[in-house]
Amino acid sequence: MPSVKNPNGPSKNRLIARAASLRKQRQRESAQGKLEKIHKITKEDLARGARPGLLPNSGPRKALGKKAQRKLEKKLGYAIRRKMEREGLSKMEVEKVEEMMGIGKTSKKSAETEEIEETPATKEVEMDFS
User: Fold this and answer.
1) Helices 66-86 + 91-101 axis angle, to 10
2) What is the DSSP letter of 127?
3) Domain residue spans in the chain?
4) pLDDT exceeds 90 at position 40
5) Which candidate in 16, 57, 62, 85 could, as Cys together with 49 as Cys, close a disulfide (CB 3.0–4.6 Å)?
6) Residue 9 vs residues 3, 12, 46, 57, 67: alpha-carbon distances, Å
């Protein structure tokens, strides 16, 4: 008696397609796991468009615009200044540290006036921060 294929079962092409789709799904999940472990990118950030070297398009870890970056740098500078004043550093020392870090805005005029106004007392306060 000849073997007859069951007409109610899936076709050979359908079985191959199902196996291929499952294989692709497993590869995607494996790649996502590697992104989380190696590159420390969370699932939420991946959903928002984050990739290795790219920040997400939205959410708390999205890239800041230039204006927001400038505002944040100003806020950080003010916070550093308050911290140093709390620790008891003098105004001159605070200005020197700000100048080294590039936080404070010093114009050419103010730099010239500082050189003229130096007294022997201020020369004693010089500190090396390196």
Assistant:
1) 150
2) -
3) 9-60, 63-101
4) no
5) 57
6) 14, 9, 39, 46, 63
